Amino acid sequence: MIRVTGAAAACLMLLGCATTGSSGGSGTAAADERRNETAVDPDPYPSTYRRYPGVPTVIRGATIYDGEGGRIDNGMVAFADGEIVAVGQSVPVPEGATVIDGTGLWVTPGIIDIHSHLGNYPSPSVDAHSDGNEATDPNTANVWTEHSVWPQDPGFSRALANGGVTTLNILPGSANLFGGRSVTVRNVPARTMQGMKFPGAPYGLKMACGENPKRVYGSRNRSPASRMANIALARQAWIDATRKRPRRSPTAAGSGSKSPTRRPGSGCRSTRPGRSASMSRPAASPPARWPTWFCGTVIPSASIPARRWSGSTAR
Fold first, then answer.
1. Spatial separation of the C-alpha atoms in residues 258 and 237, rounded to whole Å
2. pLDDT single digits (tens) 160-181
3. Helix H segments across the chain?
4. Could you tell me which CATH number the domain at 57-109 has?
5. Residue 309 CA from chain centroid, whole number
């Protein structure tokens, strides 16, 4: 009887302490404060890009590809405040506009490079500038390529002047199965990566399969050393990510976890079509559609409507 009474008294004391500690909601407030202090900012490096000011300009007499599959001979394009405002056979010429004779020239939408390493493998190509591959583990989904981008890479101006590239999707290299997060930038002079960052552009997840991961890690006597190990390790990574998903906070995406998460624009770089097919269904993981597949391709933005042109190049 004494033992029972002592145990009951101890329970009452503990209950009293718990009640006292939570009095006035201070425990809840403290917990909320701790959560706020450790909350993950999903976009800690937001874009600071601003359009460059410009005078109204009209190109006339040029052959124009309109970005929607059409061709306009002897057409006109009007620009104002950094945007293309009109495309057609004939467009109004604002008062005071600069008029450029485009006779014999071709005007196209700006080129969007969907698989670029400019900025993270800049010129000159020396070890000190080589920041495109975190080749220390086959899965480095937690790294962000934007932190390797050097805005002063001379390759940016060359791509703009010589190739008409106005927008780039910059990716990590292909050493790893999961290379990290990509970033989309405007091809403009800037002091910082954020000054180039395309506002509102989705991020992507760079993957590679085939000869690169097996060559990099096989040469170190590590896995993957074969294509079958590529698939096995990628499959396990997706399984691990699927298991974690129900427990992850929505704010934790991109917080540094090495578990890959699906992102708009995710894609897998492969030089074999069959290998991409294998990677797209590793035992029903990833459990989602893949919106982008690519193989080091530079594509023109001809599929983008003229109102969404990323820029213009005259040749």
1. 9
2. 999 999 999 999 999 999 999 9
3. 2-21, 26-38, 154-163, 211-218, 227-244, 273-280
4. 2.30.40.10
5. 19
